Amino acid sequence: MLYSENELKKRLKAGCGIFYFYASDEALVRDAAGKAERALLAGDPETTVLPGPTPTVEEIVMAAGTISFFGGRRLVKLPLIRPSAYSDKDLQEVCDTLADTENAVFLLTSVFEEHYGKIKPGKREQKLISACEKLGYCVRVAKPGRSDLQKLLRTWAGEMGTTFAPGADTQLLDRCGEDQFLLRNEVDKLAALSGYGTVTPEMVRELGTVTLDADTFDMVKLVTSGQTAKALQKLKVLLELQNDPILITGALIGNYLDIYRVFLARRSRRQLADAAKDFGYTGKWNYRLGNAEKAAARFSRAQLENSLCILQQLDLDLKRSKLDSDLLLQKALCQLALAGGRR
Description:
The protein contains 16 helices and 9 strands.
């Protein structure tokens, strides 16, 4: 079952005893669980927190069985519980405890890995999900789409009396990606910068945080357009901000792999969606591969393969050479410029 605020309100009103939220992103479950918790705390219950990933069966049984001093049901929180870390016997006892409890309301969250854009719970994860579905409100919190994130940005801004000028919210998404923790922090920062007025695209460009992938792709665009000096300057800023040279290299390799994959897809007359599916892209792949597609038009296959060889050698040199890592990166950028990309 997918998360629904309307259904959550119904379950809260009906006095449901189990609330379990799971997703592939911690921010998603925190947000959903936070709404349930705020409603539950309105009754001022005594609260017990059993931090994840594996509170013991004894701790859960004790928390569930302890009668609240004020006579109401105790709120027991199990944040980021990991069912796969329990033995089959212990997990069964956890499920039995959830089923037999009358003195507590349980609020559980879990984060599961995503494979090819889908959550595929394992045997033990599915066991806990099935048990909680029978006992209460158990839902998967889906990732919001791009339009949903834009609405979320505007909602957060509105809570502080701030608005986004046309294009500013989309630019923030393009630069920061879909991490809701990062996005919320950026909205807070930009709202303060605007004097709690209007956030403009210029503010986002000047002070908005960007992901390392976005920064390194900017370097790729500068290199392929013949602006090597500007690319080197951007690299200098990244290093001054204490970004690890190996991580910078990894992001550069990822950028060039995006370009190479799109290049091959276009050569075989395949669509970007096909490439995204073939290589397991998730999230905002259309934006990422769309940028790669524009860059791919500048390359020949030989140029791209030569560029990937340069980056592979850079990765090896960084891990085993005694030479200064900053100099190795600068040398590689110059080699990438010479390798082509402006045909």
